[in-house]
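Below is how a single chain appears once it has passed through the pipeline. First comes the sequence as given, then the structure the pipeline wrote out for it. We keep one example in the README because the format questions we get most often are answered faster by looking than by reading.
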Amino acid sequence: MSANQTDPVAARGTWLPHWEPEDQSFWEAGGKRQAWMTLILTTAALTMAFITWFLVSALVVRLPQIGFQFTASQLFWLAAMPGLAGGTLRLVHMFLVPIYGTRHVISLSTLSLLIPLVGWFYAVQNPDTPYWMLMFLAFLAGLGGGNFSSFMPSTSMFFPKRLQGTALAIQAGIGNFGVSVVQFVTPWVIGFALLGGMAWVGEPQTMTRAGVESQIYLQNAPLVMIPFVAVFGITAWIFLKSIPIKSNFREQFDIFRSKHTWAQTSLYIMTFGGFSGLAATFPLLIREVYGAFEGAPDPLAWAFWGPLVGSASRVVAGPISDRFGGARVTHWAGLGMLVSAFLVTLTVTPTSLDSFWLFVSAMLALFFFAGVGNASTFKQMPMLFAPRQGGGVIGFTAAIAAYGPFIFGMLFAWSFATWQSAAPVFYGLIVFFAFNVVLNWVLYARRNAPYPC
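Resulting structure:
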């Protein structure tokens, strides 16, 4: 075997000459080092992508408090728009890595996040910014959502099948932490002037909440993310390599001839679609359901817990799925989501704040089981497909599930406008979760299942 074959990092250019992660000698000779370095760099970049994608969900609850005049329906539309963009852009991203390679796709897509971050930095400083402009910037925030469908297929190609559940869970789980980061950091960072109040960072806005006025710097939320995005994008360009698994646009369409593509898509809509959709709407859901009561909770003081729990459970569930099988873990995750959604229905038409704790607990349980299912479904896909196809299926299922924030935003907007309640949405989720539990059980999880994975 040549030097280039034994040392996968021997290439000086973009493309590695050889990649065989299933070959143990190759893996130990340098493949493992390259794979884990790539995972670390792309995971850092993916975290910034999720932060950008969910930035709007953290900003939108503050806009009415600083003078923006929008209805509840308009606010849900703003929260939903990044989901529409993210899902659509993922349909593009799923094809990119086998064509352009990991290095170019990861670095350039990360640097593209600077566009919405800079846009929101300026837009929130002026309450007269037109609604159409905010909708456009919300759509651009979806650039962060699109990145997932190129990052994850890339990772699946770098690792042997025995470690893909762990690697994908680490990347997606830590990346998902970006949702919690932006919802946790925003309330804190907007409370003071950055860089000593230099003129170019903008003037404060007057926030009115519960009749009390205070000064905040809402533009700080996107501003603090800009240097991290720039550094991670440049670092990716310098250090990442691309593996020689190539196919053109037409060749990648073969995944759509398999029934497993569609079954796995439905399962991932249940898990990640539920996670992302609820993460994007959780702050507004708290505001609409419990915001009218005296002493109502601050949505951003609670909303970050949901994505945090779901992200952590995804990381933990990866190794568990590698050990016990993705299908079995998905089965129990689906049952957990079903029960949690039922408990939520008991708390979304409250008469006081007394039921708020049950509401939060049920929602956190729903996030927890969604995170577990996110990890286990990503273990199932590589087991059902060859490496290049597995990456494509991961990209496609992630693309469709990324419409979660858009779909959930629209569903809640409709539900509140029609029924003045979120309960109909959760009743629908119960039915959908039950369907997917049965689907997974019949095809993959039961004893003597035709396609155990």
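The longest helix spans residues 259-290.

See the next section for the split statistics.
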